[in-house]
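Troubleshooting entry. Yesterday's outputs looked truncated, so today I'm pasting the complete records for two proteins to confirm everything comes through intact. If either block looks cut off, that's the bug. Protein one:
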Amino acid sequence: MAITISSKSQTNELPDISADRPGMATSPFIAPSKKMQIETGFSYENDKRENTFQETFIYNSALLRYGLNKNSEIRLQTDYTTVKTDSISITGFNPLILGTKLLISEQKGILPKTSFLLNLTLPCFGEKNLRPKNLTPSFYLLMQNDIPDKLSICYNIGIEYDGTITEPTEFATICFNYSITNKFSGFLDNYNWFYNSTKPENFVDCGFAYVVCKNIQLDLSGNMNLQDIENYFMINFGVSWRITK
């Protein structure tokens, strides 16, 4: 009986928190069943490309994830932001993004752990100058290979709509994550958008994550544009909290 109780206790014990922050790549891991996870942070973006100037302050980026069961979660996201250019300054909430992540398969050998992510950007909430004109969907395949016992490779492919034109933008990213210690990890992430009418945009971000305790993670990262390193950068700081009760 003691062995059985111990075995069940170990089986039901939650692993360390797995957050979709801080990189652009989204992991295929699902939020634990019946648990809420809050991922929030601050970011600053400075963009001087193509003889324009834009500053973006995201004071609070909030992603709420709730595990419906072991194979699915629902998601809700919005940001409180300020966008400044040479001529305007806009402050308010970005539109609500309603989403779901569905587990397709676990990792089996070289076959990756795979999930499907659907996001819907809603045109009925947020600062009117920041929200799309129409309901805007995005679709992604999320994949990850864990290479024991320190390295993981996460990669996403997807299509995104902007709410104004019918042709989607293609998105692809690959992220290398290395566990330096049991609590401290670093990552390097290359992410790209491919357009039909203009040249692609290629970025890289890197940073660190620290698991304070089983249910709390801190992160710090920075982003650069590979085509114009001198005129673009972004910095991010965030915290992820899994609520277990």
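Protein two, checking that the full record survives here as well:
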Amino acid sequence: MRIAAIFLSAVPWVAHAQATATTCNAAELTGTRAITITGRNVSSSGALRQMLQAVGTATFDGVSTVTFNLAVSSSSSAAASQKWSGTYSIQSSCLGAVTLTSGSTAVFTLIPYSSGASFSLTGQDATYAYAGTGTSQPVACATSSYSGAYVFSGNGGSNTVGGLLQFDGAGGIEGSWSVATEGGAASSTVSGTYSVSAPGCVATANLTDQNNVAYALDFSISGTNGANFDLIGVSNAAVGALAFTGSGHATFTYPGLAVENAAGISGGTPPGSLFSIYGYGMSTGKAQAESTAWPTTLASSQVTVNGELAPLYYADNAALGSEGLIDAQMPLDVPPGVATVVVKNGTAVSNAVAITVPSTAIPGVFIYGTNHASAQNFPSYDLNSATTPAKAGTVIVVYFTGGGAVQGASSINTGHPTPSKTFPLVTTNYSVTIAGISATVDYIGLTPTLIGVYQADIVVPTIAGGDHNLVITIDGVASNTTVVSTN
């Protein structure tokens, strides 16, 4: 995977299947979803019809209880926090219902889809007729979860609005938009700050335009990778006040996806393992660590994770043509959860991006060529390949990262090689298959004298000669599927 999406602040990143019956139940919706709701006053009409707009989260317990935490605006009031709660049920036909008993008395028709990742709502109370949608979102968020440029559009009844918002990942936001109404359009530039509420991934922004008109925006991240958001906005203008609801989409693939396990797999990088960053303008040239211990500066580049400098192995501002690459080690003391990564090139600072630091192993096998595992035949240490295959009963040494916790971790230091006289085995259950056949593992753990690299010494099972799929599984998490050669 090669995704360019982390930027310095100066950059403005057929087959037919037989149909099967679908059945649902309340457990189809478990956990928190981003939600946006629009309401129209049922007792008014025409241009004067009062509207309600809301954005926030809906949390389902998987049994019968649902809670909505919303920022709500109407034609007569600015955004205000509201909590609605009640019960829900879902029939086997996937047709469900929500009955609110606190904060609102609305009754909704509820229909989950995409295996419960999303749902639709329609309903009514004494004042409004509602329509809404809900979608999955990240498990947790930080300020850096909103990062980079998002294009957005919205509707405020008689007005439409659209433009671009740029988040720096550290609480700063700039943008421009155009408001169209009654055949005319007016453009504004805005700037201000935003903050994120980690539970629910909801953000609030306060902006001011060039005419000193203030705006309040409320966002809720939608999509498990944070690439989209729902929003409502309202201005404080005395004349021509603007209120709208809309959605935004990252102009590039979400920046957090530009930081990945160094073996090129998704899922995050556990502490002590290696990760790669792709982007633009991240270094002044090309450099590689030359000392035994890795430096924290290469080619004018520095990388921080939650503010802590990460050891760097490689930096190249043109590794992939115009796109740059940095390889680094995840500091050992970074706690699992959402972490923030920032690149500094001299005095220029990138947007901050949110990444996942998993609490379990996420094994990623290094590859070369066409998905061939980086492996050596033992005891010759020849590179395993189609021309130098391994015989059944012999050992191959396969190199990977993301192996997770190891024994004797106190002897391992961030940025320093694994001691040559220790063999830190992984501490959780593991298994290896070659050609789908379970293989004996003589050793699996950190590689002595290297930094952040693991190895698995694997006995080749009795199989036919040729290229075969290899999978390493640690703590129930399977690696990428790669190839090894046997004869």
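Both blocks look complete. Sanity check on protein two: DSSP finds no helices and 39 strands in the chain.
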